[in-house]
Amino acid sequence: MALSQRRYISKRSPDYTMPSPGRQTSGMAEGQESLWFGLGRVVWFHADCPKGHHTVDAAWHSRLMAEVYSGRLDALEQTWRVWTELGEGLTENQWSTATRCPGWTVAALYAHHSAFPRDMSAPLPSSDAVGDPVTAGELLRWFNAPEGVAHMMAETIADQVVSDAAEHTRRELIDRFSVHGPRALQRLRQADATLVVPWHTSGAVIMLVEALRIVLLEATVHLLDVQRALDHPPLVPPSALKDTAQLLAELAPAVEFIEAATGRSTHSPLPVLR
């Protein structure tokens, strides 16, 4: 049966568990198939399958992951290019403009986010890091929990960013995007989407295809911070906006988000990030 003819039920929830061998998937009609995404794995379920499920052909899975991975790299490349072009035209007064991030100027935001292309331009590990990889959503929920890094380390991170901005010239901050950025993207394009790498400051490990979601979110949110501070229109690549919006929606409690988004409740689950 061709892929376009198959009927799927998407199982993206982190609470969804794989059926044990020999058990029919709950709620599936006889002969109905299901596709489950999770931690970079794609798994088939079929009610008539003797074992209850079997893995998708490895080549098809690899193509799917590669396509998603490539799309996120393209979006990140476009977004970093906007950072570069914007920075090239800033006056000193604009670099010193306060942003909606308390205590952070435009220069501080450049210093903060430009650490990603700078650090990501280093060689990638040649093999998977040890441990069970987390998703982007899981990592961000942990990071933004009441006792997570976003809250407990906020002042320390802010001080480091302000110092970084003061210690480097505007040219050096721009070069992190225009010089280190392309180098980082080239290394990433040569890597496997499912390579498991450590995520700094967390102790967690994550697949590159999922890690890119967080980097792209950071690039998008902070670019909007800069553009709003400068009274510029919010010009962000559509693919970056789409991926960021999807990830933020995944972080919100599903029922509360659906009811608020459709006007059925006045209780908003937002914000989901600090």
Give a description of the structure.
The chain has 274 residues and is an alpha+beta fold. The protein has 2 domains: 27-56, no CATH class; 66-261, dinb family like domain (Four Helix Bundle (Hemerythrin (Met), subunit A), Up-down Bundle), CATH 1.20.120. The chain is built from 10 helices and 6 strands. The chain has helices at 58-88, 92-95, 106-120, 136-143, 149-152, 154-167, 170-189, 208-229, 238-251, 254-261; strands at 10-11, 33-38, 41-46, 53-55, 196-198, 205-207. The longest helix has 31 residues, at 58-88. The chain is globular and about 55 Å long. The N and C termini lie far apart (46 Å).
Helix amount: 40-55%
Name of the CATH superfamily of the largest domain: dinb family like domain
CATH architecture call of the largest domain: Up-down Bundle
Biggest beta sheet attributes: 4 strands, mixed
What does the secondary structure layout of this molecule look like, with pairings?
Blueprint: E1 10-11, E2 33-38, E3 41-46, E4 53-55, H1 58-88, H2 92-95, H3 106-120, H4 136-143, H5 149-152, H6 154-167, H7 170-189, E5 196-198, E6 205-207, H8 208-229, H9 238-251, H10 254-261
Parallel strand pairs: 1-2
Antiparallel strand pairs: 2-3, 3-4, 5-6
Helix pairs in contact: 1-7, 1-8, 1-9, 3-6, 3-7, 3-8, 4-9, 8-9
Describe the structure concisely for a colleague.
The protein is α+β, with helices and mostly antiparallel strands and 274 residues long.
